[in-house]
From TrEMBL:
Composed of three domains: the N-terminal N domain, which is responsible for interactions with the ribosome, the central G domain, which binds GTP, and the C-terminal M domain, which binds the RNA and the signal sequence of the RNC. Keywords: Cytoplasm, GTP-binding, Hydrolase, Nucleotide-binding, Ribonucleoprotein, RNA-binding, Signal recognition particle. SUPFAM superfamilies: P-loop containing nucleoside triphosphate hydrolases (SSF52540), Signal peptide-binding domain (SSF47446). It comes from the Bacteria. This is Signal recognition particle protein. GO terms for molecular function: 7S RNA binding; GTP binding; GTPase activity. The lineage of its organism: Bacteria, Pseudomonadati, Bacteroidota, Flavobacteriia, Flavobacteriales. It comes from Salibacter halophilus. Residues 265-278 form the SRP54-type proteins GTP-binding domain. It is an enzyme of class 3 (hydrolase). Involved in targeting and insertion of nascent membrane proteins into the cytoplasmic membrane. Binds to the hydrophobic signal sequence of the ribosome-nascent chain (RNC) as it emerges from the ribosomes. The SRP-RNC complex is then targeted to the cytoplasmic membrane where it interacts with the SRP receptor FtsY.
Amino acid sequence: NLQDKLERSFKVLKGHGQITEVNVAETMKEVRRSLLDADVNFKIAKDFTNRVKDKALGRDVLNTVSPGQLLVKITHEELTELMGSEHEELDLSGDPAVILMAGLQGSGKTTHSGKLAHFLKNKKGKKPLLVACDVYRPAAIDQLHVVGEQVGTEVYSNKEEKDPVKIAKDAVEYAKQNGFNAVIVDTAGRLAIDEDMMNEISSLKDALNPNETLFVVDAMTGQDAVNTAKEFNQRLDYEGVILTKLDGDTRGGAALSIRAVVQKPIKFIGTGEKMDALTPFHPSRMSDRILGMGDVVSLVERAQEQFDAEQARKLNKKIAKNQFDFNDFLQQLQQIKKMGNVKDLVGMIPGMGKALKDVDVDDDAFSGIEAIIHSMTPEEREKPQIINGSRRNRIAKGSGTSVQEVNRLLKQFGETRKMMKMMGNKQQMAGLMNKMK
Ligand code: GDP
Ligand code: MG
């Protein structure tokens, strides 16, 4: 599935210290494939991954962020931006506010008219009126009455009248007379785009001048959804989109494509047949879904854990062979500093508690130690036993500390090494290292 694919692609990045042309290209290939699988239009997917690639390569990789993590973040940011960044609210001004529902037959207009009434009533404190303007099938009017009953909302209909524009205008008048401050107009759709339907919905829009014309579209129709969205937009210049049938594992790729093609916000998603299955659209959440990550954060955390486990494994090997050196020591120090909570963590490192017992533990305490280690040559860091008197002098001068401080660190380091070797047990050590992070 998508999640597996992405995880695999992020594994490509693991162990690389930085983002390179090659590992980004590989990952973006996977992301592009995932987008295509999620019904995102090919050109949009391609443009998108190219943009992410450029961004990733241009960005400085801090050593606090793993490349995989950074790529997930950039991918997610870009997807979110592409879908409009923020949730866009309905315009409910006016008395009454008028919402016109447009879309093909079966897209979910009637169902979502009901859901919207429910939403306006319960979330916006409105008193909505539902209006039945699908005059071609008596059953359509009955269906809206059933829906209205479910959500406790009055339905305006007139089976004698065959002109939807007349019905809608009468309904708005009725709303004004009877204290309804929102009117939701359900209309007729056809199975495919045709002139009659387009003319009818256009004339409804012209006559009502609604706050919102909402294009209702079935997410399961994939690429067709995008084409339909485009054609309706050309005729209606609608305000927003309701993307329906996003329950189950329908992917949200249509959201991305529609937004990119028509430049109109998706305002709601429909996630089931029940009247409360309507969710305000949030680009960031949809990014999660399109990437198939479910929960991006947990994916990143898992990747990071694996990365840490790998480091711990390497460290264990070195400890077992008594090869733990100042490079490792420095790395551990830096890890701890990243965590921020120095005081709590310092006691967990063997030897460190003692090494720092005379110092008030804060980042400054570390910076002295770090300075000393940085003043050592690579050979000295790997083989501290070669650090004789004259080397100690040089290191003290170079680090702006004293020979006593250098001596103290070397002594504590020696004890740390001994203790680590004594502990020996690799599992114990792995546990300890995990605790340190
Ligand atoms: P209309 O022709 O545009 O009015 O579409 P309807 O509202 O009659 O919906 C057509 C079918 O899709 C009905 O069987 C609905 O129950 C179903 N439907 C509508 N919205 C959703 C949704 O969000 N999820 C699911 N699973 N079914 C939906
Ligand atoms: Mg209908």
